[in-house]
Amino acid sequence: MTDPNRERYRIRETAFYLFTQQSLPACKPVLTPGWVITIFLFMGLIFIPVGLVTLRASHSVVEIVDRYDIECVPESSRIDKISYIQDDSIPKNCSRFMKVRKYMKAPINIYYQLDNYYQNHRRYVKSRSDKQLLHGRKYHDTSSCQPVELNNGQPIVPCGLIAWSLFNDSFTFIRERAELKVNRKNIAWKSDRDHKFGKNVHPFSFQNGTLIGGGKLYPKIPLSDQEDLIVWMRTSALPSFRKLYGRIEEDLDVDDVIVVNLMNNYNTYSFGGKKKLVLSTSSWLGGKNNFLGHACIIVGCSSLVLAIVFTLLHLKYRRPYGDTSYLPWNRKSLSG
Amino acid sequence: MSGWDTVNLPLKSQPGSSRLKTVSRTVTLGRVQPQMPTFRTIFCNDRDANFAHRYKGNSISTTKYNIFTFLPKGLYEQFRRVANLYFLMVSILSATPYSPVHPVTNMVPLSLVLLFSLIKEAFEDWQRFQNDNAINSTLVDVLQAQGWETLQWKKLQVGDIIRVKQDGFFPADILLLASTNADGVCYIETANLDGETNLKIRKGLEKTWDYSSPEKACEFKGEVQCEQPNNSLYTFSGNLVIDNQTLPLSPNQILLRGCSLKNTCFIVGAVIFTGHETKVMMNSMNVPSKRSTLERRLDKLILALFCTLFSMCLLGAMGSGMFIDRKYFYLGLRENVEDQFNPSRRFLVIILTMLTLLTLYSTIIPISLYVSIETIKFIQSSQFINKDLNMYHAETNTPASARTSNLNEELGQVEYIFSDKTGTLTRNLMEFFKCSIGGEIYGTGMTEIESGIAERIGINVQELQTSTDSVQEKGFNFYDERLLRGAWRNEPNHDACKEFFRCLAICHTVLPEGDESPQKIKYQAASPDEAALVLAAKNFGFFFYRRTPTMIYVRESHVERMGKTQDVSYEILNVLEFNSTRKRQSVVCRYPDGRLVLYCKGADTVIYERLGSGNDYLNKVTRDHLEKFGSAGLRTLCLAYRDLAPDLYESWNEKFIKAKSSLRDREKKLDEVAELIEKELILIGATAIEDKLQEGVPSCIQTLSRAGIKIWVLTGDKMETAINVAYACNLLNNEMKQFIISSETDAIREVEERGDQAEIAHFIKEDVKKQLKKCLDEASQYFCSPSGPKLGLVIDGKCLMHALDPSLRIMLLTLSLNCASVVCCRVSPLQKAQVTSLVKKGARKITLSIGDGANDVSMIQAAHIGIGISGLEGMQAVMASDFAIAQFRFLEDLLLVHGRWAYIRLCKVVMYFFYKNLAFTLTQFWFTFSTGFSGQRFYDDWFQSLYNVIFTALPVVMVGLFDKDISPSLSKKYPELYKEGVKNMFFKWRVVVLWAFFAVYQSLVFFYFISASTSTSGGRPGKMFGLWDVSTMAFTCVVVTVNLRLLMMCNSITRWHCISVGGSILVWFVFIFLYCGVMTPLDRNDNMYWVIYILMGTPYFYVTLLLVPVAALLVDFLFLGVQRWFFPYDYQIVQEMHKDEIHGTGLSGLLESKHEHTAEVARSSEISRLPREVSKHSGFAFDSPGYESFFASQFGKYVPPKAWDVARRASMKSKAKPK
C-alpha cells in the first residue's frame, strides 16, 4: 500500500535533488551553422508557399475604388467646399460611373472608405455609452457621452460623438438602367447586433440639437436593426478605414458600367478627409490586401537567401567549431 | 510558579524606593563611581522590589513588524523603491480623467507586486518570530520558593536567581554567584560573541561562593548597583551590596548572554540585564545591506528608461498640441470643451497630454522586475548555493550558506580577493615535515605545492605518497625510515643527528602540561612552530617532559645504549629570547657532565651570518636544502650550536647579568650582549615545518588566478611567514618580479631608536615614497610588454599605513593593481579594511574579502562581498559575512560556478525585461501617431495590466533559475570564462542598445504589419475589423513573440522552460477566451466582447499569427547566428567543444580536466622543475602576533593590548588555566 507512495516520494526527492544541484535534464541547443542554415531554409520553404497562396487570394479579389469627395462638389463650389457641404439647401446628389474591369462574382461588398478621419481619437472613442445602447433610456448615466449627452435635459439615444457623427452618404447602384439590389442586412458583426445594441431601444432626440453631426436614424427601428450605426460604432483602428455599406448580390460582368447615385452629405471637407467608394469581391482570406502576401514572400525569400549566403560562407570560410584557438587565453599564449 | 508570574501590588514600591535612597548613598562608598549619569539597582531574589523599576522582560523580538505595524511599515518599505513609487503615482494619475486607461491597468500589477513582496516579508518575519519564540521558550532553572523551577527564558526577570547547567547558554547577562568548581570559578565559551573557542574563566566573588544550593540561594539578598545597559562587551562596573558590605564587581563576574557554560557542572547567578538590554543584544547592529553592482547599474538603466519615457511623452504631447483643431468637427471641440482638448489653449493641452501619455506608457518601466529578481536570487541562494553538495564540507558537516541573497551575481564579477591567512589559507597547524641534518635531507612527504607541480607534469602522486601508517601525530607529519624508531643511530652522521635532536629538545620556551608520558603530554607554546619542533624531538626519541625555571628534563634514547632510555637533565643557564629583530633564539645549557653548549635556532639569514669558518661544504649544501624547502612552501629554521669554554661563558655572563639589570634600554643592551656570544656557531641542520594549508588551496588559487582574479593576502603575521605562505599557495614564485616594501630596514630602525614619533613618521613616509617610486619605475617597464614576468608586491603594515596616505595612494594603487599578487603583512584589522576600500573605491573594482576570525570582520564588511569561513572557529566573521563557506577551496565553486551563472542569468533576466517592456510599450507609442496624438490606448486595460505579471512573468524566472551555458565542471576547467563577468560583457551599454534595437524593430513589425494588413481587409464576409480586434491580434502576436524570444536566448532548455513558455501563451489564450466570451451584467466589457472568436473565425488571423512572430524574430535569429559565427563568446566556444558530451554527473568532466593541460601550463611546470640558480627565497618559521606578549605575560608583565588582541585567535591565547 505504501509502495507507490514511497516511490512517489523517491521520485520527488530525486527531482528536488536534481533541482538543487542544478542538474535538471535539459536540452542544450547549440546554434551551429547547420542549424542556422536548416532553420532559414525551413522558414523559406514555409513562407514562400504561404505567401504565394495568400497573394493569390488577394489577387483573386476584384476591387473598384472611386474617390468621389471632390468630384461630387460642383465646380463652382470647389473653392469653398465647407460652406457647400454645410448648406442644407443645396441638393447633394451626385452620379459616378464605375467600369467593371474584371468579372466580379457576387456577393460584392460595398465599402465607403474615409481617410484622415480619426475614429480612434481618444475623445471620440470614449464618447459613447455601451449600457445605454443596450438598455436605452432606462440607463441614465450618460456622462461618458460628453459632449453629445443631453438635449434639452433629455438624454439622447444613442448618445455620444460616435453616434452623432454617423456617416450619412448613401449610394444606389444602377446597371443598364436597372437598379442593382443592395443588401444592407448582415453588414455588422453578429455579436454586436445581438449583445451590444438593444432590441427594444429606439433612437430618441437624436440629431435634434443645435448642431447636427451626421446621419439620422429612424426612431421606429430599434438600435439592433440599425446596422449602419452598428458598423459605424465599431470604431476603426487607424485614421484611414473602410466600413461595409452593403452587398450587391448579383455578379458583375466585364465592361459593365455602373452608375452610382449618391448623396454626398457627409462633411469631410472641413478636415481634409477623403471619401471613397469601394466595390470589392472577397476571397477566403478577406478583401484585397497584398501586404500579407508580400510580407510572407519577403520573409521567405530573405530566409532562403540567408540560408544560401550562410551555406556559401560555411563552405568558403568554414569556422572550425569548438576551435580552441578562438579562446582568447589561447590566442595570447600563441602570440606570446 | 506561584506569585512570580504576576507581580502584584504597586504598593510595595514604597520600600523599594526608600531603599533606593539608601542605596545611592552606599554607592559612593564603593570603589567605582559609575560613569553613567544613572545606574540601576537590582534587588536580587526580590521581584516585588524590582517591579518598581519596570525593567524590561527577558523576551526578545528581532522581528521587523508586528500585526499592527506590518501593513503601514511594510508598505512604506515597498514604496521606498522608485519603481513602486512611480507606479503608485501613475495609478493615482490614472484615476483622473486625463488617463486613457482604467486605473486597474496600473493598479493590478502594482498590487500584485506589492502583495508578493509583502507575503515574502511576512514569511521572513514569521520565521524570525518563530526563531525568537524558540529562544524565548528555552527553559532555565529559576529559584522559586526554596527550589529550582523550570521556567521559560522569556519569563525571566531582572534580579532572579537562576541556575545554568553545563553546556547551557546563559539566558541573560548574569552576575556569577556560585559555581560547582572550586574557588567559584567557571569556564565559558564566548564563540557566539567574539568567535573565540578557547574557554574563558569567570570567577564569582568569594562572598557569594556558597549560594549554590537552592536552600542557601534563597537566603541571598543582595543589591547590585551597576551601570545602565550598554554595548561594551568587555567592561562592566558595579557593586554588590551584601550584608551592608559593598563589594566591587568587575567583568570577571559577569556571564553574558550568548555564551555557554563549559567544564562546570552548574553555576548560580543573578540576572542583571535582560532581553534587549543584554550586552549581546545591544551589540547586534544592523549590518548595512550591500547592493550589488549589477543592481546599481540597473538603476542607471531604469533611469535611462525614465528618460526615454519622458521624451516619448514629450514627443506625443507636442504632437497633440499641434494636432488638436476645431476642424475635426466630429470630435465636438466646441467652446466649452475641456482643457485637454481645447485648441485655443494648446500649451495646456501639451501639459495634460503629457500626463495622459505618462500613464499610457507606464509599462515601459518593468514593475515586476525587482520582484522577479528578488525571487530568482532568493531561490538561487537558498536552494542552489546553500544546498550545493560540492560546497558541503562533510567533516565539519557544514554546508555553504548565503546569508544574503543580494549579492549572487556580484560573485560572478569579482576581480580582487582579499584573503586572510591563518585559518583561511592555512589551518594554523604547524607540522614538522622535513629536515636537513648534516647535509642530508630527511622526510619523504610532498607538500601540496610540490604535488601540484608533479601533477601538472603528469606524475601520479598517489604512487609517490608513502604509506600513511607511519608515526603521525597532529604537528608531526614526518616519515623517513632512516630517522624514525631510533634508526638514526645507523646513519653515518648520527652525531649530527643527536645534536640536532637535542637542540630541538632544549632550545625552546615550551611548557609541558599534563601527564609526563609521551602519549599524554601536551605542549603549551607561544607559537605552534615551537610546539611542532618539540614534538618532533619527542618523536625522534628526545622526549622533553619537564621544565623548571633552571632545568629542562629530557628522556633520551642514546646511541650508546640501544633501546634504552635515560632521563637527562640540562641546566638552563641563559635564555636569549626571540624577538623580531634578532630572529633567533638561543639557550645556553650545561650538560650533566659539565659541557657548556649554546644552542641556537633562527632564520637562515641571521644564523649564516654568525657561523664560524670552516665546514663550507655543509653550509652550502644546507643552504641549497633551505632554498628547496622554501620554494616548496615550508617554513625553515636553521639550528646551530657552539661549545663554550667555561671562562668565556663566565665573562660573558657577567655582561649579560649587567645588561639584564640595567634600567635603560634593557632590550637593546640584551641584544647587544647576545651578539657577543652568538657567533662562531656550528651549523647542525635545518628544520622544515609545513604551515599546513587548507585542503586544495594552491590549486584553487591557481584556478582563480587563471580566471583573472587577483588575490591579495592580508595578514597580521610577519613578512617572512606571509611570503612563505604566499609561496606555498602559488601566489609568489621565483619567476615573478617581486617588490618588497618593508619597514624593517636598518635606516628605519635607526630612526626609530631615536624615538621621536614625528621624525619616525616623516622618515618612514619619505622612505616609503622612495621605495614606491623605485618599484613603480622598475615595474612600469613591464606594464606594456605582455611577455614580461608577472609582478608581485610585498608590503608591511607600517609602510602600508604611510602608503595609504592620500599623496602616495595613487602610486600604491598603480603599482599594486599591476601586480598579479600582493601580500600585506603585519596589518591591523583596520588596515585590512583600508586596503580593501582602496581597491574598491580607488580602482572601482569588485572586491571580495574572505576571512575566518574577528580580525577580518572589518575587511569583510568593507568589501563588496564578504565571505566568512564557517565550521571551525567562532561565528564573528560569519556573522558579518554575506556568504559563509567551510573551506577556502569552495570559493572556486562559489565564484566560478554559482557566481558566474548568477551573473549571466541576472543579466539575461534584466535584458529580457528591458526588451519585452520596451517592445510592448513601443507598439503603443507607434499607435499614438495614428490617433492624432490623443493618447488613446491600443490595448485593453487588462491586457496591459496582466502583460507583465501574468503573460510574461514566469518564463523569465525559469531562465533566471535554470539557464546553464556550460556544466559546472567545465566552468572550473576553463576558469578563463569567468573573465566575461569581470569585464561585464553581458551588461554593457552596447548590449542594452542591441536589445533596444531589437525591441524597436519588433514593435514596428507588431504595429505596422498588423495595421497594414487589416487596413483594407477583414473577416468574412466582407466585414471589417475595429480597433479592438486589431489590438487583440497585435497583443497575441506580442505575447507569442516575446515568449518565443525567451526560448531563443536560453542556453539550456529544461522541461520547465517549455512548460512556462507554453503555459504563458496558453494562459493568454484561456484568458482571452474567457474574457471575450463572458459578459456579466455587472461589468460589461463591450469593447472586447466576442473579439477573439471573430478573429479566430477568419483565416487571416492564423496567417498573421504565423507571419508576425517569425518576421519579428528573424532579425534576432540572424543576429544570433552571425554573432556566434563571427564573434563568438568564449563560453560558446567551450559549448561547442563539449557539445557531444553528456554532463549528467559532471564526474567525467572532472576526471578529464585533471589530465588535460594546455601548452602554457605544461611549459611553466617544466620550468618549475628546472634547478634554480639564485636564491630568492627560503622560508622562515617562528612567528605569531602574540608571541612576544606571551612571555611577557608569563613573567607577569602587563602588555598593552594591541588592536587585534581582542580578536586574537584561540590558538594563540595560551594563558595557562589555573588548576
From TrEMBL, chain A:
One Pfam assignment: CDC50
Keyword Hydrolase assigned: no
UniProt KW Ligase keyword: no
Database matches in InterPro entries: CDC50/LEM3_fam
Coiled coil: none
Membrane-crossing residue ranges in chain numbering: 34-55, 291-313
Keywords of the record: Membrane, Transmembrane, Transmembrane helix
Entry's Gene Ontology cellular component terms: endoplasmic reticulum; Golgi apparatus; plasma membrane
Cellular compartment(s): Membrane
Similarity annotation: Belongs to the CDC50/LEM3 family.
Name used for this protein in its record: ALA-interacting subunit
